[in-house]
Structure formats: structure tokens, C-alpha cells
Amino acid sequence: MRRGLPALAGLLLIAGGVAGCTGATDDRPLVVVTTNILGDVVGELVGDQAEVRTLMPPGADPHSFEVSAQEAARMREADLLVANGLGLEEGLLAHVEAARDDGVPVVEAGDAVDPVQWVSEDDSGLDPHFWTDPQQVLAVVDELSVALAEHVDGIDRDRLAAGTERYRGEVAELDVWMSAQFAQIPADRRELVTDHHVFGYLADRFGLTVVGAVIPSGSTLASPSAGDLEELARTIRAAGVRTVFADSAQPDRLVEVLAEHAGVDVAVVPLFTESLTADGGGADTYLRMMRANTEAIVGGLR
Fold first, then answer.
1. Which of 92, 159, 175, 251 is at 20 to 30 A from 28, Cα to Cα?
2. Residue-wise pLDDT tens digits, 173-217
3. How far is Cα 72 from Cα 67, in angstroms, rounded to an integer?
């Protein structure tokens, strides 16, 4: 049963009256999801059995995006709130905790994975980007399916089980395909440099090595120092790295930073690292995002 905020009762009644006039009511249970990657996964599992409200818009940065007051209220009305966890949604932590305090069941996908750490010369931390490893996503799918069955009234458990089984098969197929693609990369070209530490899980799963990041952190909210850039430049030269991978939202910035401050001339390949695109943008589902990134990484390293 949805939870409401007493202070919003009048607004909800008005909204309900307007919706009643337009025929736009939605009586399905509400699942609110913080990131669009997880929103896609949840939608695959439940189909049209629930209203899946994804907070993060296409192309947004999960570390910095914030929500409106209306969206924050929706979080506290949900039958289930799904978050990434592991410190990813830095701008939403207070809202997630407020919903939890209101009694909304919260499932954090990061609790289902075997976390890895990002490590720089001076710092380290838990890596929240588990979706780059399909094996970790399989564990998340199982956790989400259990939470949906337990907390979302009205869900047909047989349909949920069928959706879960179908999607598990698609993710497992993705994992097999990615393994075959990454096996094509020569042994002396399996080093990754990225804009920030985002591919630790992928590297562990498919036998690559993350040798550096322009932003020596697991978050885009950090900033590289002059010393960080100098260290990265030395790493790139020593490893013979010819390609750096950056989020598609800001590849030009990365080129400028490396060229101007580090004196390194490398090719920069854009990837869809932390957000899905809008429909037709090349990465509008989790499966398409991972296939596009795999092809780009393999092409950039071979």
C-alpha cells in the first residue's frame, strides 16, 4: 500500500481530481528507481504490472543528479524504492534515507554484489559501478526479483518469475558474448585508462588491468590535481597506452586535460559508462549499452 505525506494530502486530492477528469489515473503499485540502468532492469522484470518511476534522466551523471520536491515525495510514496547504493547516488542519499525512515522498503542493488575497490596512489574506495560485469548484474536481478515479490502487492509472482528467468538468460548471453569479444584483445594491450574509476568490475571479470584514471576516484565529483595528472602521464607512457576511454558526455574535456596539463597525446574513445541514453541513442537499454561499450573497448585496444 502506498504511503503518503500528510502535508501533501490536499495536493494529492487535487491531483487525483484532475487525473480523474483526464482518465490518467494509474492504480498499479509504484516502484521508484534511482538510476536509469536499474530502472531498465526493474522494468524488464515486472513488465506492465507496476508503475516503474525512474528518477535519473537519460545522459545524467548518477553522482551529481538531484530530484525535485515532487520526485522526492514520490520516493516516500513508493511501494518499493530501488537504489544502486555503494555511494553512487551522492545527491540522493538524504532522500533515500527519508523514504526509509517513512517505512518505504528500500533495496540497494550494491548489497547483492561482491564489491571491488578502486585504488589510486593516495586513496581507495568501494566501486559502485557493478553493472559493467554481467555476472554481478545476475546477482542483482535475483535480489530485485525477491524484493519485488515480497514488497509489491498485486504482482503476479508467476509472471515475475517468468520475466526474471527470461532476463537472466539475456544477461547470461551477454556475458558469454562479452567474454568472446574481450578474448580478442592481445595480451600486451589489455590496459585501461578511463576518465574516473568506472570499469573495475569489467576488468576483473574479463582479464583487463585498470592502470589509471584522469580523476583518481570512483566519483566524477572529485577533481584531479596537477600531481595526479603527472602521475597518470607517467603511467600512460610506461604502459604504452594509446587509447583513453571517457564517458560520452565529456570526451573533449578529457582530451584537453591530458594534452594541456599532462603533455600526453592519446586517442579518446567515448563510452556510455554511467547512464543510458534516450530511445535510439545507442545505449537505451542496459544490454545495448554493454554491447556498445564492449565493441568500443575492444576496437580501441586491439
1. 92
2. 999 999 999 999 999 999 988 877 789 999 999 999 988 777 654
3. 6
Q: What is the pLDDT of residue 63?
A: 81
| pLDDT tens, residue by residue, 134-149 | 999 999 999 999 999 9
Identify whether residues 197 and 143 lie together within a single domain: no
| Three-state SS at 102 | coil
Tell me the pTM: 0.85
Co-location of 35 and 148 in the same domain: yes
The region that residue 52 occupies, defined by phi over 0 for left and psi between -120 and 50 for alpha, beta otherwise, is beta
> Could you list the residue range(s) of the whole structural domain that residue 252 is in?
184-301
Q: Indicate if the alpha-carbon torsion angle 112, 132, 46, 108 is positive or negative.
A: positive
Provide the 3-class DSSP secondary structure of residue 48. coil
| Whether 157 and 198 share a structural domain | no
Q: What is the pLDDT of residue 163?
A: 98
Containing 200, the helix (H) or strand (E) segment is helix 200-206
Residue 77 counted as domain residue: yes
The number of angstroms, rounded, from the C-alpha of 231 to the middle of its chain's C-alpha atoms is: 28
With residue 215 as reference, give the H or E element that holds it. strand 209-215
Domain boundary among 124, 144, 175: 175
**Grid cell locating 149:** 515479490
CATH of the domain at 201: 3.40.50.1980
Average pLDDT (117-143) is: 88
When divided into structural domains, the chain yields a total of 2
Q: What are phi and psi of 249, to 5 degrees?
A: -75, -20
Q: Residues of 246-255 as b/e, b for ≥16 C-beta within 10 angstroms?
A: bbbbebeebb
Do 273 and 290 meet the contact criterion of CB atoms below 8 Å apart?
Answer: no
Q: What is the reported pLDDT for 152?
A: 97
